[in-house]
Amino acid sequence: MKKLVFTLALLLSTNVSSATTFVYNVTKDEVVHEYASERVRPIASVTKLMTAIVVIESGASLNGKVSYRGFLGKKELSREELLKLLLVKSDNQAAEALAKAYSGGRSGFIANMNHKAEQLGMVHTSYEDPSGIGRKNISTARDISILLNYSHNFDTMKNLAALENVKFTKQSKRKKKQSLMVVNNTNYNLLKEYKEIEISKTGFTNAAGKCLAMLLTKNGEKYTIVILGERNTRDVQRVGRKIIETL
To answer: What is the percentage of the chain residues whose pLDDT exceeds 70?
Structure first.
């Protein structure tokens, strides 16, 4: 383990950005690598991991229809379809639709997001909306690792959060025809390269920078990888790739 930690530190030492990282071996309960892992910062759409958990734990039927208005047009979608949009495309309107359809309304949904974070011991985490677009959706790399590990308890998360792409039908306004649309995961490149990834979520806002949260199993051991605040997509994928290759 010491050799692995040293190797990771050496590989990531060229990263002069302000990004924070946390790599954790869940199986052995060991920190593999960390850099400023308790620095509180905006997390952008990584927020949607908690959004999905609140929906799943609410007990509401995943087949139940919810009103949606977004890039697919105005239509009724099942909660499962909205979760696919949420986790694969990182669709902000899917997040809002799910929150508004919650039994306690949008405000109750956000309150439960924060309550769940408190329950899980994510002491530096706070949510202000279900999509992550706001600056006050904040956390740390270490807190997100806790959420990733918890998310792995749910089959729905494991079934949806690492899909390379999903298919939807979209209504054409002019021709009034339905066309098939393939939507790639926002972490498509790494998911295609590494089949070991079981849960994945990216995020980006100007305040948060490029963010990436992943859970994977490699050589029979489970790991969480969290990178917050990278400069661009190329860099966050480069760091993610280096970490996976070194484990």
So the answer is: 91
